[in-house]
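Good morning,

Both structures are done.
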Amino acid sequence: MSRVVAPHIYVIFGATGDLTHRKILPALYNIVSRNGVGEKCYILGASRSDWTDEKFRDVARDSLTKKGLDLTSWNDNHVFYQSLGKKSDDFAGLKARIEALEAEFNLPGNRVFYLSIPPQVYPSTIEALGNAGLNTSPGWTRVVIEKPFGHDLESAKALNHTVHAHFSEEQVYRIDHYLGKETVQNLLVFRFANALFESQWNRDRIERVEITVAENLGIGGRAGYYDRSGALRDMVQNHIAQLFTLIAMEPPTCFEADAIRQEKIKVLQALQPIDPFEDVVFGQYTAGEVDGEAVPGYREEADVPSDSRTETYVGLRLHVNNWRWQGVPFYIRTGKRMAETLTRIAVCFNRAPVSIFRNNGSPNLNRNILLITLKPEEGFDLRFEVKSPGEPFNVKTQQFRFRYDDVFGHVPEAYETLIFDTMVGDQTLFVHAEEAEMSWKYFLPLLTQHVAVYPYAAGSWGPSKTQTLNEHWNAGGNALSKG
């Protein structure tokens, strides 16, 4: 696949919103300034606000300045704005503006539509694009849809139905910013370009896999969204499901989007049904201390009902019923107000079958562990055993360490990577329609089973009940989480 950017218009719906100015515009700035595509990309902001080109440019300039960025001349000649008015189904003005810009700058009709808008208006916006004839063009047309993709299985199916009524699957880019992280992408290279690891990536060599996505922050001002969503909808169904399938997937036939996505779907198809009372722990944070600061419990947060049972923590034990992973548990945990902000995958290999050092004072050797860290520092660590110098005989755990920043310097932000992929037409890191539906189908029923919600103190590693899933996890954390 060519990675060359063709001249195009990048239309941002929700151009006046926070995501546009906090993530999308800085990502576009980095792309046009670092990849030499500045003369090929024209940005058209679109929203209901009655702004002008000049107003949008001023706000865009301020957003970049706050991040220490400045691309004033490009901004003044390549950034435009179109008010959509008050009618949700009238995009005639938008179409006319796009065509006028294409004529003015001699563009071939290539268009990206980025939906940085509330999920409840995805269907009406997609229908309006189709009804206005903006789902086709003289060049190519792509539509980028932010998460969450639906609220449950039925809404995801309904949204897919609406999308496919106007766009083909090849035109659709369901974005999950976790998949834009360099370490996530490098999972594919790490596994399938290194025979050393791929040959060990199975039930014969791996004892368990642990995936931790922890945040020390609370819900902030997002109670209106979060209390209707919870940790399972907010994190497990999308971000964590994607990490899990990349770790567990079989080798694709080639490094192309369709081949990779099909292998991810096969993992979801092979998942063993979850026992909601044996394989699940839900939790909700109570008052505690994070980084030396006292913080309130979830029910004391602004606009959260005092009797809320919304889970802010999810612990899961998953099993994949296939040849590679039979009998290997995958442990997943994610939560708010935890001990630290950390996204890490721990691949825990089996211990040596016999310790020949048991008579030398080292009866219980630690297992080899591969740590894949996405946050805060993207990189890999491999833990192994060595003898410490001198006497008495003693075995110590050491590690090989690799960090992207140390070797490559600047690492692109996730949105930068994903937005660039939408420009070149690479769907490898985007979610397929079937993936979105299968993930809802598998995880959502847990919310209907009346699973108990256990309290955990803010600043801890979650409910102590989690230890019933994985004895290596407990409320105090462990070396895999913190080391």
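Second structure follows.
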Amino acid sequence: MDFFDFLNTAVTPYHTVDCLKSHFRANSFAEFDGNLEPCKAYFVVRGASLIAFRTPKKWSDASKFRIALAHTDFPTLKISPNPDETRAGVCTLHTEVYGSPLFTSWLDRDLGYAGMLAYVDTADKSMTLKTKLIRGKKFFRFPQLAVHLNRGVNQDGLKLNPQIDFNALWCGASENGKNLFVTALEKELPAGARLVDFDVQLFDAQPANRGGFNDDWIYSGRLDNLSGCHAIAEAIASTDASDNDFNVACFFNNEEVGSTTREGAVGNFLQSVLDEASASLRMAYDGFAPAMNKQDCLLHSAPTSLRGNAEAISLASRLSSSIALSIDMAHAEHPNHTEKHEPNHAPLLGKGIVLKTNSQKRYASDLMSSARLRLLCEKAGIPLQVFITRNDMPCGSTVGPTVSANLGIPTVDIGEPMLSMHSIREMMAASDHEDMIKLVKALFC
């Protein structure tokens, strides 16, 4: 899967998952229906989240999980449910802030809109909900106030109020004032369909590009965390089944708003997939478990709460001796603001993978998981840098601590160094992305 095509296509979490599904299908992954076979690849989708996995050649008491984690969402501005207003002869759309975008970067940009529509066919008496993925062909804008009307802006800095300044200009007002956004969305639907609801957001419409005099950098929107998604997807699709271990790729939605959703890392998505897959694997591999009668088979297809303690303990034991890589972006040292980094822990662009640690446990890395990462990088010949936040600055977090705590799996937080994190247009080094793909392949081999 070409990285630039992925960056330019995955403009919402829904589009990210759609790209991932196409990639996995093209690489012989099948949708998981509860039944597994050895040496096969599967995926399962929940909303704008996806989990893909490869079953091992053998499944035994020594089998473990090798898991890579990323997130499909990114800071943005979402179109509100009732967005339409008319001011100064212009139709505007009110937006709602999602995550923590760098506000000033959204000004004076060509902004596309995309998302998912929920609709029903008016001829369908059962009123079955259907969905359609959309990407509009028009561009919106947040024009900045001219310097002549904001004389102190260059001296005092630009200050934005998201309630006031993020009403997107999308068209000139008609005489009857009925240029409603919902009307525009309805035109995206099949004939005879009625729009029920929508989840639409804005995105930077400028394509991803190479940058720098030697073309060694990548400029794009959504690098946080489409880079992690791409690296994991490439790695699991291009590696064969492990001899004994279960390889898992997780792509969660809603990390930017705390992950406490059914599609997020706090939800039960990963736990339920691992639980069902483990139960199915016990039945699929000859010689692993004693022969089961019909009652045993029914028991193993039931939810965890109805199964015997032995299997639950077995899964917990496997997880405690397994490993997870939580892959998100890392803060590279800014050449114009070196004071913002802890001097001995300042990652550089193009110098390799970043190990992220934090004594307040905002990252999941601990002694043993970090040590295992160091050995993995050493074995694969991948350069490694270490990041900690300054003591006088707050530290962000990832899906790593949540997954590690929920599953009891040793987890290490890592990332690719980048600049302009949470800007509408971010920057990273191409070589670091190549190293990340190489590292995840090493995890799955």
